[in-house]
Here is the input.
Amino acid sequence: MRVALVKQVLDVHGPWAGVKWKDTSPTQLFEVWPGKALHWELTCLLQADWYIVPVSVEGEYLNDAVRKHPGRARLIEQNTKKVTEVEAIPFEDYDLVISFDAILDISPGLPTVFAYYGQEHWDSLYICSLRRPVPGYDLFLAHMMDAPHELRSLPQAISFPYPHDPQLVRSLFNPPRQEAAWADWRTPMTLANQGLGDPWCPEANAALERLRGVLNIDVRCRTTSLSASYAISDVLAWGDAAHYYRELAECRYYIAVGRLGGAGQGLRDAAAVGCICIGQADRAYHRLLCHPTCLCEDMAQMPSRLRVLRESADLQQEVLAWQDQKLKTHFRDAPLALLGEAIKLKRKS
Here is the structure.
């Protein structure tokens, strides 16, 4: 399967340089990747080429991530390399093209499957795309898993998570495991009574300290990167995604509970590096991944769930085996099969 990934130059996610898979490697990608690890495993699993194109569509996500932050657009433009005009991308060379948001004006008649993710689930683009993809596209990839799960025809919105490749991740990030728990940032932010768009604050630090006392375990959380929106600060942290995986892999447990929304991709990262994950039943990825004994209805259940886990080595092994099977089924095999099915369907039509 030949795959191209396409984003606009002001999209903060992904690499900040156009790059062909044949010219890079999983570790080299981090050298041009200053933000979150989102889309890194997708790139590696599909062995995809990245194209960065000029901005043509300015939606709600781009405004929230870039335009409302003075100087950020200039920072991104100065540090983004190898930008390609859309007309210069050889779309006909690829079986699949995935763009981030519906940014492409697609010519009719191409046999290539064109799909897109909505970068933010609260964006009106995402909400409208659940009914039908933007004209020209074959698939809308609903990462919140709130679209149909079976491919019936093209075009169509389809539930499609951010894929994972645990074998690759663990081959690169496998430090000695410590008796520590990683807390998703939403947990202390919820305890501090903060909102989804609020920056990390002293109240959240205090909540994290209280959590350590209640759970009687070393609880870690990436607080510094959360002080900047989308983890993009004036001093770019090239390769920070690799440090994140490494720090996460040191922890035996991962805790992600609280009222703040999202699909739960942090728990997916944690399961990929081999953490024992405690999640919440109202998160899409948590329901797919969490062992029944680790799925909480609310935050109040979390301390007892962690205590039971810590007291049983056998249960820990059972949970890890469960998570690995769910990762393989829902975050690798099923997404790859769906893409292959879409390519066959497009060629038939």
Summary: The chain is about 35% helix and 15% strand. The chain has a mean pLDDT of 93.
